[in-house]
Amino acid sequence: MSGSDLLERLGILADAAKYDASCASSGTDKRSSRGGRGVGSTQGMGICHAYAPDGRCISLLKVLLTNHCIFDCHYCINRKSSNVRRARFTPAEVVQLTLDFYRRNYIEGLFLSSGIVKSSNHTMEQLTEVARSLREDHDFRGYIHLKAIPEADPELVEQAGLWADRISINVELPTDPGLARLAPDKNAARIEGAMGHIGSAIDEAKDARKRFRHAPRFAPAGQSTQMIVGADGANDIAIIQRASSLYGRFGLRRVYYSAFSPIPDASAILPLKRPPLIREHRLYQSDWLTRFYGFAPEEIAEAAQDDGMLPLDIDPKLAWALKRREAFPVDVNTAPREALLRVPGLGTRAVDALLAARRHRRLRLDDVARLTVSVARLRPFLVAADWRPTRLTDRVDLRRMLAPPQQQLELFA
């Protein structure tokens, strides 16, 4: 096989993989090839393809095994009725590409997905073979994330979990009616059943590792999923509630949100334009509030507008605070951590720093200002040793005062 042909297929299949957002590589075991054993590492720096939650750049070879597909999901550019260039790798070619890219210091790991070719079981076998060969034949110790096929036999998905750091299955759309309408070949119950099977296998492997030191690992970085935003009529509250349910039922590490992007030769039932990217950003912010700030989905719903959509001009925490002004102001010298986390503009690190500092002295507004980007948005919501907002918290025009200023963008700037 000529090198030019391989690069041409790589261009096609790497471009086809760009629509999958769920490729962060945080949370896996630390492995290294230092000492002369193995190939690859889960740590280090390289070309950035994703970001870990700590901000570290992660370089991944993100590619499809093939963009041939027997399914006809309306929102997918690789659906069987789509008029796109098709290509396909063998498992051995993906293995060699991964090793070659790693040795050139281009990547730290592999994110591998695929269209459904021949059958779900056949495709899952091919994906698993890539991970098995990397681990067993080449002692590859870098990060591997496999996108599992929910329609495949559970035994095949279980095999994949023995070689991959993370397994993910996309729920695709926030609601079951939306999935039935836009992805008629997929079944919501089957997708959730596969996610439940993976979650159980992860829990069993963790329990076995506690009792038996050399018990096999299973997807040590957990499982994740992805939802497409804006392809159906689901509002932000429906998306947040679905994500919360998935976290609670399956112990997911992450839910990723991907703004719908119009595709060539699109189906007539799809929207004509993509939703604003800021909507995707607001959903990630709300996701962070439920995972790290103690907000319940019902509280995020309070921040939404009458149509169930989060405001785009301000972040969800500020929107919630403006509607729940009776909870403010909060005294930075006496309030518990849970109350401080709800103050707009205070992040988890800033709150922890405030709690540590106030053990030694009473905090002034300047002390808080040193830990935040802007103290102006904090003033209406907190009390310090030298500061009280008095009537500022109840001002009618408080939202206008705190919202970021509108900017006119220049087309040719």
TrEMBL record:
Its cofactor is [4Fe-4S] cluster. It comes from the Bacteria. InterPro entries: Aldolase_TIM, DNA_rSAM_put, Endo/Exo/Phosphatase_dom_1, rSAM, rSAM_sf, RuvA_2-like. Keywords: Iron, Iron-sulfur, Metal-binding, S-adenosyl-L-methionine. The keyword Ligase does not apply. This is DNA modification/repair radical SAM protein. It comes from Novosphingobium indicum.
